[in-house]
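Dear colleagues,

For the upcoming journal club I promised to circulate an example of a predicted protein-ligand complex. I picked one with pyridoxal-5'-phosphate because it came up in last month's discussion. The inputs are reproduced below in full, followed by the predicted structure.
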Amino acid sequence: MISIRIKNLSPYKTETTQAKVRLSSNELPLRLPEEAKQKIAQEVAKIPINKYPDPEAEELKDVLSEHFGVKRENLVLGNGSDELIYYLSIAIGEFDSGVFYPIPSFPMYQISARMLGRKRIEVPLNQDMDIDLEASLRAIKDSSPILAFLSYPNNPTGACFSREKIERIREEGLFTVIDEAYFHFSKKSFLKDALSREDTVVLRTLSKIGMAGLRVGILIAKEDVAYEINKMRLPFNITYPSQVIAKLMLTEFYPLIEECVSTVIKERDRLFQVLSQMEGVKPYPSDANFILFRSSVPADRLHVELLRRGVLVRNVSYMAGLEGCLRVSVGLPEENDAFLEALEDSLKNFTP
Ligand SMILES: *Cc1c(COP(=O)(O)O)cnc(C)c1O
């Protein structure tokens, strides 16, 4: 009795392999000091876990609205932005209208569309990992999708798409979701558009700034758009501990996060420089906290060689146009050094 839509899906893959240095999931390498952990433990101990949490997460929303400089009414919270991507895929247009996104990009856009049986309009990126505007406009004319997902910066390629191209695509009448999961590393945003237009929303998340375990995603939209999306939110989708800990992290411990983010930005630029100089390696420019790179040796084998040296990165070489590519998250200086050393050593040991 299970729908063919669901039977045709494969389970979501994440990297669970153990490794000394894990640079595969774009997490922030935040190390909380003991006092901070103690404080969190104290606050968590006060939670009446027999009680439901605040269904609207008002206190957390207050902190988030201040943080993003928007009103509380502009926000919808999700159990990660994954959940918000799913909600948007249900809410925007009817199921017989299509969903547009460039590929390769974040897998949830495809998964959500498939789950709902919606037509997928997938257009390969150009050589520079930017939107292929001509091909996109042609595909949009042919299939009239109603919803566009744009990862900005794009995961797994790293850079932001050109703003003008996004605006041009939106002009075709698509409801445009700008997924700014890596905003803190790019500082580029469509927030103003999301606050002033009915056809644009922005997604943010706490996952890439040190709180992936809390599962808090944020949709920012005009009040009336946010109001509609909020209707379909599952009640209590943000757990009590997540509400309490996220609030604490974004207030009392935010300086720790800011410091770590700026370290990662510096390290990203260093890593890019070093990779650029390495023979047989071509890194792609990144506005995020990870770097995509292509190597002259088979990616599957390089991935294993790195792992044998204790370093786990993400193998993205199976994705369209990413043959020979791996994606490395930017970690702490010593983790990045371990990665660079393992990479150099692996490449040396490859016999053509
Ligand atoms: C990591 C990531 C997310 C975050 O998803 P969460 O569910 O909030 O953890 C969303 N979009 C993109 C493009 C990402 O890379």
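Two points we might discuss: The mean pLDDT is 96. The pocket of pyridoxal-5'-phosphate is lined by residues 26, 80-82, 106, 151, 155, 179, 181, 205, 207-208, 212, 217 (CB under 6 Å).

See you all on Thursday,
B. R.
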